[in-house]
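Supplementary Methods. Inverse-folding protocol.

Structures were first reduced to a discrete structure-token string of length 341. This string, shown here, constituted the complete conditioning input.
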């Protein structure tokens, strides 16, 4: 089978590799769509401690069941599915505390999704594999993983009906977060972004777009909230300066969520008075839970969220490196790699 093999920063080649096998309780999925995410971009540009080359990148995918193990009863060849790249064990101290995304003993798929086939083990089949409803595209199914991550981030923001959310950054995750927040009943979503094309997309979604180079962001937030400021600020960019800036926009008792991962050894200066006297919470969000993955598919199936609308480029697997470069250069919003089957 074909696979895009990552060989280190800036190096990726399309190669023939051995088709993965399955165990009696697992399935083999023929990948039809796989999304390029920020982690793929960062890994391709400068490496990543979790991805030792040579390896296959990609973890947002959907496809068709190609083969089932002898013990599998609930799935059959031909089923259209979205698959979570990992699931929690449910029993470790983190899972018992409800922090499934921090599970000590996660189970995952056989490898990355920038390939033709992925082996799905029993645990992921049982807790992280969801049938795609009729009419839902494979590209939409591949968006379930990033959408699940945004649902996790929004839960950590502790938003209530009618609250105002400020999002710093209108990349794919910022725009998905805006859609999800509005679907969940947030009163207003303000999106701050320098890229005018991305601001236009935020406006289409129903958010209030603002370019901080052109407009006074603090004044706009104050005006839109009648002086209360934003109940939550979701930082969807990987810059420490953005986390520090967020402190100027959050309401007393509110939340600043470091949703975008910061480079290693980054430091953030925090106003202790804001934390102590204003009782602002500084939190972080990482990953998703198996419950949120299923919720993501259900929200798209119900038409509450159109995650596929942020896909701007569809490329064949052979152009995986090109898709990553387009994302890195902000020439694409969301790139989807497809196998026609």
């Amino acid at each position: 089978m074909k696979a895009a093999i990552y060989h280190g920063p800036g190096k990726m080649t399309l190669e023939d590799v051995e088709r993965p096998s399955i165990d009696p309780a697992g399935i083999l999925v023929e990948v039809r769509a796989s999304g390029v995410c920020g982690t793929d971009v960062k890994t391709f540009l400068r490496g990543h401690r979790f991805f030792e080359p040579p390896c296959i990148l990609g973890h947002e995918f959907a496809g068709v069941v190609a083969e089932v193990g002898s013990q599998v009863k609930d799935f059959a060849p031909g089923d259209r599915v979205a698959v979570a790249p990992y699931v929690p064990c449910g029993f470790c101290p983190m899972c018992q505390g409800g922090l499934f995304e921090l599970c000590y003993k996660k189970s995952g798929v056989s490898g990355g999704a920038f390939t033709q086939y992925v082996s799905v083990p029993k645990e992921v089949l049982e807790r992280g594999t969801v049938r795609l409803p009729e009419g839902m595209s494979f590209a939409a199914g591949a968006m379930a993983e990033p959408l699940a991550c945004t649902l996790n981030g929004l839960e950590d923001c502790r938003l209530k009906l009618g609250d105002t959310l400020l999002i710093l950054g209108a990349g794919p995750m910022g725009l998905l977060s805006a859609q999800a927040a509005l679907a969940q009943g947030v009163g207003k979503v303000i999106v701050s972004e320098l890229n005018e094309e991305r601001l236009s997309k935020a406006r289409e979604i129903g958010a209030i777009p603002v370019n901080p180079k052109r407009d006074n962001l603090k004044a706009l937030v104050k005006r839109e909230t009648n002086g209360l400021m934003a109940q939550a600020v979701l930082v969807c960019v990987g810059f420490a300066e953005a986390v520090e800036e967020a402190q100027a926009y959050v309401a007393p008792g509110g939340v600043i969520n470091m949703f975008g991962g910061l480079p290693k050894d980054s430091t953030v200066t925090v106003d202790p008075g804001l934390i102590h006297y204003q009782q602002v919470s500084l939190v972080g969000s990482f990953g998703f839970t198996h419950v949120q993955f299923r919720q993501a598919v259900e929200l798209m199936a119900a038409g509450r969220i159109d995650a596929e609308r942020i896909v701007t480029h569809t490329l064949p697997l052979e152009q995986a490196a090109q898709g990553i470069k387009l994302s890195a250069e902000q020439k694409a919003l969301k790139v989807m790699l497809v196998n026609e089957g």
